């Protein structure tokens, strides 16, 4: 009798654990498919030249720790109109307002697909002054809408800011 009870308890425990494992795998599959859907949405927005990158962290030159903007910071492109808007609390010098640029003839090109599946795009902007010309290299991570962005001065080649953010389709 005791062995029958132990055997049935062991079977029930095994079934419960198997159910938990199946639920975990289903949860992972749901997260993966949602992540892939966000990746496809971001990739489509980049290809259609109608996107916004919402900045989550800045890596400013000379600072080791990432900085989270207190106010919304973004990079957007809609057709040929590109905008860079960085939060004023990130200003490290008085000329920081020159980093906020709008260009009506921006060019976006797909650079390459990396071996790990990440996609890389390059956005070239003319800020009106030679010192405001920007090259924005966007790396869209595989199976997600998260990206890494490097903003450099296109004329002189120095880094202005590195950042991470998320790519979303821009509303008209």
Question: Explain this structure to me?
Answer:
The chain is α+β, with helices and mostly antiparallel strands and 172 residues long. The protein has one domain: Beta Barrel (Lipocalin). It is 27% helix and 37% strand. It has one helix and nine strands; from the N terminus they run αβββββββββ. It has a nine-stranded antiparallel sheet. Strand 7 and strand 8 form a beta hairpin. The longest helix has 46 residues. It starts with a helix and ends with a strand. The model has no long low-confidence stretch (mean pLDDT 80).
Question: In summary, what is this structure?
Answer:
It contains 1 helix and 9 strands; from the N terminus they run H-E-E-E-E-E-E-E-E-E. By secondary structure, the chain is an alpha+beta fold. A hairpin with a 5-residue loop joins strand 7 (134-140) and strand 8.
Topology:
Elements: H1 2-47, E1 50-59, E2 74-78, E3 81-85, E4 101-103, E5 107-113, E6 119-125, E7 134-140, E8 146-153, E9 159-169
Antiparallel strand pairs: 1-2, 1-9, 2-3, 3-4, 5-6, 6-7, 7-8, 8-9
Throw out a few tags for this protein.
single chain; alpha+beta; Lipocalin; 9-stranded antiparallel beta sheet; 9 strands; 27% helix; 37% strand; elongated
């Amino acid at each position: 009798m005791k062995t029958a009870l132990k055997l049935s308890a062991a079977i029930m425990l095994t079934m419960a654990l198997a159910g938990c494992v199946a639920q975990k795998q289903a949860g992972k599959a749901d997260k993966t498919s949602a992540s892939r859907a966000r990746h496809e949405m971001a990739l489509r927005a980049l290809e259609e030249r109608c996107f916004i990158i919402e900045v989550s962290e800045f890596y400013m030159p000379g600072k080791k720790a990432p900085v989270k903007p207190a106010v919304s910071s973004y990079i957007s492109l809609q057709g040929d109109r590109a905008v860079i808007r960085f939060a004023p609390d990130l200003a490290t010098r008085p000329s920081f307002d020159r980093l906020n640029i709008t260009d009506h003839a921006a060019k976006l090109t797909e650079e390459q697909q990396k071996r790990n599946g990440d996609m890389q795009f390059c956005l070239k902007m003319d800020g009106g002054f030679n010192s405001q010309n920007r090259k924005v290299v966007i790396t869209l991570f595989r199976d997600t809408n998260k990206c890494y962005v490097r903003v450099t001065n296109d004329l002189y080649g120095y880094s202005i800011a590195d950042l991470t953010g998320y790519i979303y389709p821009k509303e008209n």
